[in-house]
Specification:
Blueprint (H helix, E strand, L loop, with lengths): L13 E6 L5 H12 L3 H13 L4 H12 L5 H5 L2 H9 L6 H11 L19 E3 L5 E3 L4 H7 L1 H5 L5 H8 L5 E5 L6 H4 L1 E7 L6 E7 L1 H10 L6 E6 L6 H5 L20 E2 L6 E2 L5 E8 L10 H4 L3 E4 L9 E3 L5 E3 H16 L16 H23 L5 H10 L24 H12 L9 H8 L15 H4 L14
Parallel strand pairs: 1-10, 1-11, 4-7, 7-10
Antiparallel strand pairs: 2-3, 5-6, 8-9, 12-13
Helix pairs in contact: 2-5, 14-16, 15-16, 15-18
Length: about 475
């Protein structure tokens, strides 16, 4: 079983997750991204204070009186969370009471008999009682409630839950490399821009994904940031990283043992990778058409191999209660694939995940699993050995009764069976399907026809044909019926 992802590192980290397709490499990147991106519960208070900084003191006082909807003294207002947050947003802890008095007096109704202030604003919202208790003017409450709805929502009971669902503080950047991905997208490049005043086209140097992340990390040294690269070997890494190849090494980072800076190609400025930036990437080891990482690049990364993980797979049951063990199926197929085509031809667990019933298994085998195996055979053995090798990988040296493949020798299995008439149509279809493909047509009918009735009693709607992919069973698939 693949090791779980540990806590965030405390030192600069460069890691590449390698392995065959379907072993959860990209899933690991996404899980890492969750660890670097702050959970909302942690950041809620600071985010709320940041939002309050956009509002003036008068708005805040109005919001407090709207939230409380009662008479309040200035000392009571000073204890309200909104006032405390506003003081924090303005980085103030002194003379808050004087600020409140100024706002209340300045925006008091001009006909007030309890407030003596010569400086009155044309915008008035407040008045107070003889006992110095302040209140909002009733006629203005609907208007203020609408105008300050976003501020008021920050102190609604459901606000934290809503924020948890819709907001994150991102400290990561996820990109996917491809053949056309280059230095301009990753480091920096010259890009066109329309001048808003003149309408003319201009060209300017803009940061790429990695430099933009490094800029954020440099201004926030208390947190770690992550550059996440999916399919790193799909691009020319030497070209994409350029001069950064020298400075991504942990010891060359800012604050490292031998810190080093480089001059960027377009802007010409000196650049050093912050020590709180980590780099994670994935690499598919099966696709031989992709670029090979050179040794200078490889030595700057730790490599973690992701193996097929059978512990994540489930057991299916047909409507008679017979089981199909997907873990054993994957292990058996991979064992035979390794023997015939090599270790890099194995199938990852994702090929067998998300399957809930026999019909879905048939569809997955027909559309993804067997075609992938055929691709490996063509690469390692050649087209001439396709049918022979495919049978060898699916069933080994075992003779089977209910093959997924078209095979003349398998068409006589029902002749002397009690259920011969039941399988006659299926056998006939198989006999006449050689020119149309490698699969048994009755199997194709189950895999490609979601409306096929379970009452059709097709053998391919039972567990028996799929159990034979990892074990040989002579059990009658209809003995429970």
């Amino acid at each position: 079983m693949n090791a779980p992802i540990a806590a965030l590192p405390t030192e600069p980290t460069n890691v590449i997750f390698t392995g065959v397709a379907g072993t959860g490499k990209t899933y690991r990147l996404l899980e890492l991204q969750k660890r670097y991106d702050d959970s909302i519960a942690v950041c809620w208070d600071s985010w709320r204070i940041q939002q309050i900084s956009h509002y003036g003191w008068c708005d805040v006082v109005c919001a407090v009186l709207l939230l409380e909807d009662r008479l309040m003294t200035v000392p009571e207002m000073m204890q309200h969370p909104l006032i405390i947050d506003k003081a924090a947003a303005n980085k103030r802890n002194e003379n808050i009471n004087q600020t409140l008095w100024v706002q209340l007096n300045t925006h008091t109704h001009p006909d007030s008999t309890t407030v003596n202030s010569a400086q009155r604003s044309a915008n008035y919202y407040f008045d107070k009682t003889e006992t110095s208790q302040w209140y909002l003017l009733d006629e203005l409450k609907p208007i203020l409630t609408e105008q300050l709805s976003e501020l008021l929502s920050l102190y609604d009971d459901s606000a934290r839950q809503h924020y948890h669902q819709t907001h994150t503080v991102s400290r990561s950047c996820l990109v996917s490399f491809h053949q056309s991905y280059g230095y301009d997208e990753f480091v920096e490049g010259i890009r066109p821009r329309i001048n808003a005043q003149t309408g003319q086209m201009q060209y300017e140097i803009q940061q790429g994904a990695f430099l933009a992340l490094c800029a954020k990390a440099a201004s926030d040294p208390e947190h770690r940031y992550a550059m996440l690269i999916d399919e790193i070997n799909r691009a020319n890494t030497a070209q994409v990283f350029g001069e950064l190849m020298s400075v991504i090494e942990p010891s060359k980072r800012a604050g490292g043992a031998t810190p080093m800076s480089v001059r960027l190609a377009y802007s010409g400025r000196q650049f050093m990778v912050p020590s709180n930036v980590d780099i994670y990437a994935t690499m598919n080891t099966q696709d031989h058409s992709l670029a090979v990482l050179d040794m200078a690049f490889r030595r700057r990364f730790d490599f973690v191999t992701c193996y097929p993980d059978a512990s994540l797979l489930s057991v299916l049951k047909d409507d008679a209660g017979k089981e199909v063990d997907l873990a054993q199926m994957m292990l058996s197929i991979n064992q035979r694939l390794t023997a015939l085509c090599g270790e890099q031809a194995q199938l990852g667990q994702s090929y067998f995940m998300g399957i809930d019933d026999i019909r879905q298994l048939a569809k997955r085998l027909y559309r993804q699993i067997v075609p992938q195996i055929m691709a490996f055979i063509s690469l390692h053995r050649g087209e001439a050995y396709l049918l022979q090798s495919l049978h060898q990988i699916l069933y080994g040296d075992n003779s089977v009764s209910y093959s997924l493949l078209y095979h003349p020798d398998a068409l006589n299995y029902a002749a002397d069976e009690p259920h011969a008439s039941l399988f006659a149509a299926e056998a006939y279809e198989q006999r006449h399907s050689a020119e149309s493909g490698l699969f048994a047509q009755a199997f194709v009918a189950v895999a490609e026809n979601p409306s096929l009735s379970l009452e059709s009693r097709s053998i391919y709607l039972t567990a028996a044909p799929y159990q034979q992919l990892y074990s040989v069973s002579s059990e009658d698939p209809y003995d429970a019926r």
